[in-house]
Amino acid sequence: MKPLMPCIRIVEVLPAPADLFRAAAEEFVRVGRAAIAEHGRFTVALSGGSTPRSLYSLLANKYADFPWSQTFLFFGDERHVPPDHSDSNYRMVNEALLSKVPVPAGNVYRVPAENPDAAAVAAAYEENLRRFFQLRPDEFPRFDLILLGLGTDGHTASLFPDSAGLKEQSRLVLANWVEKFKTHRITFTFPVLNHAANVMFLACGSDKADMVRQILEGENTPPFPAQQVQPDGKLLWMLDEAASAKLSR
Ligand code: 6PG
User: Which atom of ligand 1 is the closest one to the Cα of 89?
Assistant: First the structure.
């Protein structure tokens, strides 16, 4: 299938985490307002982990007047736990953002991870995406924005090195077995990530510096999962000074 448009990669380095979250919030709002102006709604997939929590809090505190009623929120990945569990990405996002902004409950597409059958969870969430985006069987959704993080092992969403999910080219959502955690993670597949109009990676802290250099400048065989994110659109890496410290200037 011919790419929708070439991948445009931009790397932005901000002095400190607070600057990174401010710039990321401005980008979220810019992309959101442009999408709503262009097609009446903003579709965004949120990332989990610890890094984006400050972005979500800033959006809640500074952008309550954002058009949340025209914003549709999904999750790029989720841990296989109930929504009130301390590991739940939904719980983190709900505490930092959803419970604080006027987004209609019907606009929030939580991963039903309380179901003990991980494969059934992935199938149900895939069905949600297919219905929401009104996809034909061979079609992939084009999110306006997908937020992603970076693990120190090069994983993103829940696409971990050496995991089966790396090879998936037709499903939208997978229950991906993660050997090191001995559990399944529910995750978008690469085709969904690479069909997005905008992908924004957030990485901060010196512990990410090695992997950031590998991802942005390294020739790795096989490539790290985060290196395989090459969307048909804008690929924005937002880094703080510490995470960018090993990049060649
Ligand atoms: C998750 C994430 C995962 C995360 C990275 C980075 O559910 O954990 O989606 O991909 O983005 O593990 O996590 P930190 O931000 O906590 O370093």
Answer: 7
- CA nearest to 89, candidates 187, 164, 227: 187
- Tell the residue number behind the tokens 């982990």, with chain if given: 49
* Paired tokens of 44: 């965004």
Give the pLDDT means over successive 10-residue stretches in the chain (249 positions): 75 98 98 98 98 98 97 98 98 98 98 98 98 97 98 98 97 98 98 98 98 94 95 97 94
d(CA 52, ligand 1 centre) in Å: 9
Q: How far is the CA of 157 from the centre of ligand 1 (A)?
A: 7
The reported pLDDT for the residue numbered 5 is 73
Start-to-end Cα distance in the chain: 35
Give residue 178's identity as a one-letter amino acid code: V
Adjacency order of strands within the sheet including 77-79: 77-79, 183-188, 173-178
- Rounded to the nearest whole angstrom, what is the distance from the C-alpha of residue 77 to the centroid of ligand 1? 9
Task: State if residue 47 touches ligand 1 by the CB under 6 angstroms criterion.
Answer: yes
- 7: CA distance to ligand 1 center in Å? 23
Q: Kindly report the pTM of this predicted structure.
A: 0.97
Distances in Å between the alpha carbon of 32 and those of 39, 43, 144, 173? 10, 8, 8, 24
HEC string for 105-118: HHHECCCCCCCCCH
Tell which atom from ligand 1 comes closest to the C-alpha of 79: 7
